[in-house]
Amino acid sequence: MKIEKSGARYSAIVGIGEKLKELQSQSGQEYLFLNRGVPAVTLIDLSDVIPLIDFNSAELQVYPPNNGIAKLRNAINKYYFGNKINPDTIFVTHGGMGTIDLVISTLDVEEVLIPKFYWGAYRNIMNMRQQAHDSYENYEYLEQNIPLLAGKAVIICDPSNPLGNKFEDEQLLSLIEKLDTAGVIVLFDGPYRKLFIQGEDKFYQQLSVLPNVIIMESFSKSLGLSGQRLGFMHTNNSEFGQEFNIRLLYVTNGVNAFAQLLVHALLTSPKGQKAANDFRYKTVEGMQQNIDYLREKGFLAEEFYLDSTPVGIFAIVNKSEEELLEFRIGSVGLPFFTSLDKEAAKKYSRICIATAHDKVVQFFDKMAN
Ligand SMILES: Cc1ncc(COP(=O)(O)O)c(C=O)c1O
After folding, report:
1. The Cα angle at residue 327 between residues 323 and 328, in degrees rounded to 5
2. Does the chain have fewer CB atoms within 10 Å around its N or its C terminus?
3. Over the range 47-85, which residues count as b (16 or more CB within 10 Å of their CB) and which as e?
4. 231 Cβ below 6 A of ligand 1
């Protein structure tokens, strides 16, 4: 059988997880799986939310509208954009990964620049879509080279995977506005943002008026629902929106209605909001304890957080994947997340800090002593 090779590679992180499970079962000893990419301090408790969903309804059982169920798009407008945008500029999608793929296949740009330390899927998707791409060093580089970037697209991921750092919104906004004005397309990937920022939040509203900015969001991390495969994309460029919507149709034929109704209940009902807030509170509290602990013990690689704040759900520690593995801690070596300075990256690893604090202390204390 002749096949068309995508040029992409199967996720290295999945492979590391499989190897760790094997080591654990062979040795009979417990391993700490900090290689994962999902918040695991707690699950979201949906017990009071599920009864709010009417399973015997056409809304749940029949094909949903292609760009998403209207009441969910209205809820996204309210919760993410302060009710200030046209809900028709919001497209409900099958999660962040699929959104990025569709955005890249819809865009016609010379080159896409991705951060020096990036989520591996960016590069794999670019390869699969035969999209020319390169890395940029940091935000100063972008700021200083704006005239060279016209006609290109830039991915900004904040809080970042893999660094787990957050830049000030004002700083991001000022950079993004300059890029937008110069005709640079900004792909803002923010699936971790809403874990940390609740209540009054004007950031997406401010981005939403910029014609060259595309916002890509997901409910995988902020609501702990990676199993539901749900996210959204916002653009105020109607031509881009129309083409994206056509491609969305032929990939999804409508996005899972149950997931949409579940997220709608979480965003709008008092019981849903309580479940979401409890989940976020416990997750953020657990991560903060882990950051404080890693800092105190000297494991946090502070050099990555000189001009930004470590928030999670990841952090970079100054130990290699192999060093951590000796203490039965699973991680992903930093070289997996960069194509520049791979050699220098070898002494660091990315760990998921959205993990029970007592377990982190139990395993890292052995290394500290
Ligand atoms: C930076 C970043 N963007 C987007 C995603 C997409 O997540 P999902 O496809 O679960 O929505 C992830 C998942 O790990 C991510 O790390």
Report:
1. 105
2. N
3. eebeebeeeeeeebeeebebbbbeebbbbbbebbbeeeb
4. yes
Q: Is the CB of 161 under 6 A from ligand 1?
A: yes
How far is the C-alpha of 241 from the C-alpha of 153, rounded, in Å? 17
* Distance of CA 23 from the midpoint of ligand 1 (Å): 27
Cβ within 8 Å of residue 175, ≥6 positions away? 139, 142, 143, 156
Q: Is the CB of 159 under 6 A from ligand 1?
A: no
Token digits for 116? 């020096």
Q: Which residues contact 342 (CB under 8 A, 6 or more apart)?
A: 335
Quote the CA–CA distance of 74 and 80 in Å, as a whole number: 10
Question: For a substitution probing ligand 1, which of 38, 101, 126, 218 has the most ligand atoms within 8 Å of its CB?
Answer: 218
Nearest-5° angle of CA 163, CA 167, CA 170?
165
For residue 39 and ligand 1, the question of a CB distance below 6 A is answered with no
pLDDT tens, per residue, the chain with 369 residues:
999 998 888 777 888 889 999 999 999 999 999 999 899 999 999 999 999 999 999 999 999 999 999 999 999 999 999 999 999 999 999 999 999 999 999 999 999 999 999 999 999 999 999 999 999 999 999 999 999 999 999 999 999 999 999 999 999 999 999 999 999 999 999 999 999 998 889 999 999 999 999 999 999 999 999 999 999 999 999 999 999 999 999 999 999 999 999 999 999 999 999 999 999 999 999 999 999 999 999 999 999 999 999 999 999 999 999 999 999 999 999 999 998 888 999 999 999 999 999 999 999 999 987
Strand-pair partners of 75: none
96 lines ligand 1 (CB under 6 A): yes
* The dihedral formed by the CA atoms of 271, 274, 279 and 285, expressed in degrees to the nearest 10: -170
Q: How far is the CA of 96 from the centre of ligand 1 (A)?
A: 5
